[in-house]
Design a protein that fits this description.
- The protein has 341 residues and is mainly alpha-helical.
- The protein has one domain.
- Helix content is 75%, strand content 2%.
- It has a two-stranded antiparallel sheet.
- A hairpin with a 5-residue loop joins strand 1 and strand 2.
- Helix 1 runs antiparallel to helix 3.
- The radius of gyration is 20 Å and the shape is globular.
- It starts with a helix and ends in a 10-residue tail after the last helix.
Length: 341
């Protein structure tokens, strides 16, 4: 049953990165769009994510519940030593969701719409930034349970160049995912060409930020290069992601929109696989050389069995409904209330 739970955990993290990341990316690309073109970008993104934006957070909730119930030691360690970026990320999610609702559905149209819009855009950037920094902290080996100094225990594990570059890479990846997904949502012509240009730009941003991650790992003595390229699986994943990127742009040039979305998600999954494979079953790397393992630091067997069955049975009810939700709104997406500000 432990493999079932680990599978659900990894899948929920991947889906939150791919679907939730594209959700955040919609706000990110709007943030960096000129005012002259921001309205069209916002309108296209709103029509695409409006009906299902909140459903994407279900994957994060599932991951948190799995860690809390199935791996309490890992959950408590992350909650204690990474509580600052975790709170920042959760505040970003809350602020973004609130601002999204009020900027589009507020009954009173006034100057507060600009405030809501600014909160939405900034939180769309900040949330994946801290999400990536948390991921960097988990694998960088900077968490030290023996530390008694506040800054050493609760600040430096996540506030460092390596974690920051992973945060920026996460932002770039979200912008790229959203741009590729929105190519198919935009109307043929200038709007679609605009999102193709955005996808190319964010592709460059993601590649540059990815290079910065490797540079930061070298300066901070983190063996990221050997983690990714030091085993056949990681090297194959990187090659597959690179090859799929070439195919993606060939298909976009030919006017295809569906398969490029799949390939963009595939690239994200390969990146996650390349990094996570070398550490499995370890989930958190500690500064003292120890690890928090998904096998060694799990809940009692009875709890794991109950959790596994709950995930299996729950998925049979929830997943079909969720997929139908995506399908129904993609099939017949109606024009919602939208006001230019």
């Amino acid at each position: 049953m432990e493999y079932v739970i680990i599978g659900f955990l990894w899948l929920s993290i991947l889906l939150y990165l791919v679907l939730g990341g594209a959700d955040f990316g919609a706000g990110i690309i709007e943030l960096f769009t000129s005012k002259a073109h921001r309205y069209r970008t916002r309108k296209t993104a709103y029509e695409a994510i409006g009906p299902i934006w909140e459903a994407n957070h279900m994957w994060l909730i599932i991951a948190v519940v799995i860690l809390f119930v199935g791996f309490p030691v890992i959950y408590s360690t992350m909650s204690i030593y990474l509580h600052i970026p975790l709170v920042a990320m959760l505040l970003g999610i809350t602020a973004r969701g609130t601002a999204f609702v009020f900027r589009n559905y507020d009954a009173v149209i006034d100057n507060m719409q600009r405030v809501y819009n600014r909160i939405f855009l900034l939180s769309s950037f900040i949330t994946p930034l801290f999400l990536g920094m948390i991921a960097g902290s988990v694998i960088s080996g900077r968490i030290d349970p023996s530390e008694t100094d506040f800054t050493s225990a609760y600040i430096w594990p996540w506030l460092n160049w390596f974690s920051l570059t992973i945060g920026l890479f996460t932002v770039g990846l979200c912008g790229f995912l959203a741009s590729v997904y929105l190519i198919g949502e935009a109307k043929p012509g200038d709007d679609r060409n605009s999102f193709i240009r955005k996808a190319k730009q964010w592709n460059v941003v993601a590649v540059v930020c990815g290079a910065l991650v490797f540079i930061a790992s070298l300066t901070e003595n983190i063996p990221l290069m050997s983690w990714v390229f030091g085993n056949p699986f990681g090297a194959t994943a990187v090659i597959a992601a690179s090859f799929s990127l070439v195919v993606l742009w060939i298909l976009v040039k030919r006017g295809k929109t569906v398969v490029p979305r799949v390939l963009a998600g595939f690239q994200a999954s390969m990146i996650l696989l390349a990094v996570s494979y070398v550490h499995f079953p370890n989930f958190v790397i500690l500064k003292n050389g120890e690890h928090l393992s998904l096998f060694e630091h799990q809940a009692p067997e009875a709890t794991m069995t109950a959790l596994a069955w709950a995930l299996i049975i729950g998925s049979l009810f929830i997943l079909p409904s969720l997929f139908y939700l995506y399908y129904s709104f993609q099939k017949d997406r109606h024009e919602g209330s939208f006001v230019e500000h």
